[in-house]
Every structure is written in structure tokens, then in C-alpha cells.
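Field reference: sequence -> structure
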Amino acid sequence: MPARVTPSVVTWIGASRAPRTFFVPPIRGYYPFTQATHTLIVDISPQDEELGDQSEPSLRPEVFFQCLEMIVRSNGQTYPRIDVLRFECTNPDKLPGRRVWAVLGALRPLYLDIAFGEPETLSLPRLSSLVPQASVPGNQTTVVSNFADWRYNLKYGTPRLFSDVYGLKIVHPLAIDLFVRLCEEYPGLATQLRCLGLLSSQTTPAQLSRTCSSQEFGVALSRCTSLTHLVLTAAEHDVDVTFCRMLPSYFSNSLLHLRVEGPTVMARYCQRWIKCARTKTWLPELTSLACNLVDRHDSRTNRRSDQSQLEADAEALTWEMKFIEAMTEHRPNIQILR
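Structure field:
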């Protein structure tokens, strides 16, 4: 008798339409929803964003918070406990407000996912092809209670919310900055992380600018002493000499899987990586490695001629080959990925 396959549960709430819960089938098209037991997606995109079917009226702010509070209060009752909390927004400079964090402060997720400024990462278009299993009602006459967690005058949530988080993924034009700020507000977060993904978007809107230095990022990353998985995608505005040269010093020796991507200019300043790779004591437990230095299409401007771009690509490829060769010298069983 074939084993019973249990679908994952995804609850979506946003300002554009009534919240709903889906049972997600364990098939490839719905990855990464199938990697969690219950994912809560909070979409704070502006109400005028195109999210597909707009036949339903948008939620008023008070109704949105009533529905969100009901989801939190019923956590673990009708459906499994929420183990993944995901924020989505098409606008990269609109972070969750304190009231949103306050309501969510009663949750104890294991994984926090922040995806801002990337419209193609929105979940609702994919989920809309499924039949909702339930909708969370919103009674407009309900009085919203005062939230105890408002006493935490913090920008990025409450201590309880982060107490069990071991996985963090941030997709944002300033992903590195957000990571540093989270670690500043919650000093214990870095030490408990086992999985970390920082994916910076290449294009930074005019109203956004980096606020933390490469040294501050290095300090925050060096505190992640329990990391086993690290995915780092640097954008051109993230890269400077300090970032490239000092980054290997901040990697934890507990790493098992490492993926690094960035613009080709990194090859010019990352020669120290090759020296570290030839050292037996650097990342001794690493089992898989992926490194890819390439200029993304939206960063290829008229600043470079075709010839200079070819030279940059060749320099990056040469660096990658030397780095991989150095890594395999003392790690013959390491798996090289693309």
C-alpha cells in the first residue's frame, strides 16, 4: 500500500483580497511551499499592485489586522503550527510596520523569509491555481485589541518571534543591510542560525542606499557560528575591496554548503580566497561549493564595451577555476555545483 502523502499548508494574507488557506500538493511546481508544514505569507504590497484577480474588494487596514490576529490566535488548532513566516512586497522600501510585527510576535517560526522588490517572487499568482480550502473571516465590527508586544519599540519584530528561527532568507536590493540590522536588534539571532540566504537585487532604487559598512556585515556574519548552509548573492553596490578581501575570514568553519555569486569585478579583489582555500583549516567540513561571478543583464550598461566585458568575464572564469582547484586540493570529496 503506497505511503500517504501529506500536503503542505499555506495561509496567505494581504491587502489586496481576503485571506485564505491552501493545501499545496508535494509537486515540483510549488517548491518551496512543500518544504514546510505550514507557511504563513504576509503580502504587504500596495493595494493597487496587479496580483491577478481583482474581483474581490481590498481589505481595510483594520480588517487586515483583525484577520491577521485571528490567524495567529488559531495557530496550531485547525492546521499545523506555522513553521515558516514569509513577507512579500513589490516595493523594496516598504518594510513591515511595527503593528504587523506586534501581531506576529506570538508566533514561533523556524524559518523567516523576506522577499521584497521582486514582483516575480510573489506567491499569490501560483497559489491562485489551487482551490482554497478555507478563508479566514473578517468581522468589520470586531474591536482590535491592544497587543502586548507593542511594548517592544523595535523596528524588525519582537524577541519571541525570533527565538526559534534557525533559517533566514532575504531577497531585497539591500539584503545585506537588512541582515545586519536584524542581528543588531536581536544579538542571539546570528548564533542560532543554521541556514542563511542573502540575495541582493542588482538595481537599487534611488531612494535606497546602503547604511552599513562591509566591516559591519563581516561582524554580523562572523557571529553565525552554527551555519551549515550559506547562500550569498552580492550585487554591484555591495562590492568593495574590504568586502571581497575580508569575507573569507567571516565564514564559519561549521559550513557544509556554500554558494557565492556576484559581479565579475569581485575577481579583481578576491585573490585572498585562493590563499585561504589552500589552507586545510579553512572550511574543513565543506561538502558542496558553488561560485559564479557574472554580470547580470540589468547591470550591463554602456559603461563597458563588448571587448571589456569579454575581458571581465575571462578574468572571473580564471578566478573561479583557480579557486575551485585550490578547494579540491585538500578536499577531494567536495562536490562542485553550478
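Note: Residues 7-165 form one domain.
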